[in-house]
Amino acid sequence: MHFSGFRVIKEALTGHKGWKPLWRDPEPQPEYDIVIVGGGGHGLATAYYLANTFGEARVAVLEKGWLGSGNIGRNTTIIRSNYLLPGNEPFYEFSMKLWEGLEQEFNFNAMVSQRGILNLCHSDGQRDAFRRRGNAMLLAGADAELLDRDGVRAMYPFLNFDNARFPIKGGLLQRRAGTARHDGVAWGYARGADRKGVDIIQNCEVTGFRIEGGAVRGLETTRGAIRARKVGVAVAGSSGLVMAKAGMRLPIESHVLQAFVSEGLKPCIDGVITFGAGHFYVSQSDKGGLVFGGDIDGYNSYAQRGNLPVVEDVIEGGMALMPRIGRARLLRSWGGIMDMSMDGSPIIDATHIDGLYLNAGWCYGGFKATPASGYAFAHLLATGRPHPTATAFRLDRFARGHVIDEKGVGAQPNLH
Amino acid sequence: MLIPHPLLGLRDAQEFTYLGDAALLDRPDGGDEAAFFDYTYLRDNPAGQHRELWFHEQGDRSWLVVTRDTRTHEIVSAELASDVKRRGGA
């Protein structure tokens, strides 16, 4: 089934009776070349690129719940490549370029909207840091503009420019950044992978690894044993639990990050705005709800729900930035479980177990990385070598002292 | 979330600073590089009961070892870290 304007009109005229399921519901085969654990955005993207770009024919994705039930369905849908460090920026810019061609490539509307992201600064020091970051972005082929106070005011006149503690001094704008529809991304990758023959197996939880002589041979699952030459684990949030079944401890703690959406409002915020002084970010969904979030709750959690103090903290950030947000009613909040890695940066690497690969540690920022993460992980699984943009995301970087300290906040997860 | 402080009774978790796994009480000798790498970076990260360190920064500045279920936020117990240490570690 190919999506097109003609198809939409035809279905509209014939009662929408011709739409079909977007992917099959196959029984697990006893053996695959490559099994991806985790049917979230990263796992599905990995499977898609394995089949589509690297020509792997016998690939399966195992998902313990239903597609989109993990972090891909529990985030604030922002895409951007405004990173600073050489180990990071080319990777996220690669991801941004994949986002730009994504919908045409997999013939599915993921509602990629390059509405721009504006990071506000509130002090001279912060502006200097943003100038440096913008230059690093330009050097990596991304786009960046430094706005002064008047430039910000022209875009968003309703912001609280004269907040006594955090006056707005300007902002770093990436116009190519924006948002994408998270469910559409998962469904588009799932459909694309399925069309290339990938078996997407839902309600199939991995209960153990079959490891012989230091090499992975397959998996034990709730739907039987599956043999595999290579296994790629992409289960952000649950990486610690799944890899523990393979006897590994990771430099990761699982934390809850809450997000919020207000009642539907008329269009008032056309881009993404982040409050540089605190950790608050906001955009408006196509349905009109203000979508926003802030810090992690700050202690280990698998609860998929947070606690009230952080709700209060996030709303305070929002009120400081745009006081009129106080007139909107909060519709709902939700919590996703994050892999908080010890340097706040991801891991895409082989493990010491032959044939077992890990994609983990995305902290807050896994959604924007979805295309590049899938591509780089597929590259690693298919060729055995890291993708050129992902060479810094090594598992052993902590032991070697080569951490990627993007935010300059040290190794403690509670400081991210 | 309320933490049952052994001396002060129920206290709001907001008065505390979280410092992670209670196993961090047992710091290895800095000369043992491999053990110190494990200590600094690697975590068990369990889903379920987790023994963890909370510092009562805005209270009596004591360190507590709190046992909490990471799936439900239910707190099972809290004891003074000094008592735990005296008993022979976490």
From TrEMBL, chain A:
One of its GO terms (molecular function) is sarcosine oxidase activity. It comes from the Bacteria. The keyword Iron does not apply. One of its GO terms (biological process) is tetrahydrofolate metabolic process. Residues 33-380 form the FAD dependent oxidoreductase domain. One of its GO terms (cellular component) is cytoplasm. Pfam families: DAO. InterPro entries: FAD-dep_OxRdtase, FAD/NAD-bd_sf, SoxB. Keywords: Cytoplasm, Nucleotide-binding, Oxidoreductase. It is an enzyme of class 1 (oxidoreductase). It is found in: Cytoplasm. Its EC number is 1.5.99.5. NCBIfam families: soxB (TIGR01373). This is N-methylglutamate dehydrogenase subunit A.
UniProtKB/TrEMBL annotation, chain B:
GO terms for biological process: tetrahydrofolate metabolic process. It is an enzyme of class 1 (oxidoreductase). Keywords: Oxidoreductase. One of its GO terms (molecular function) is sarcosine oxidase activity. It comes from the Bacteria. The keyword Chloroplast does not apply. Gene3D superfamilies: Folate-binding superfamily. Its EC number is 1.5.3.1. This is Sarcosine oxidase subunit delta. It comes from Salipiger abyssi.
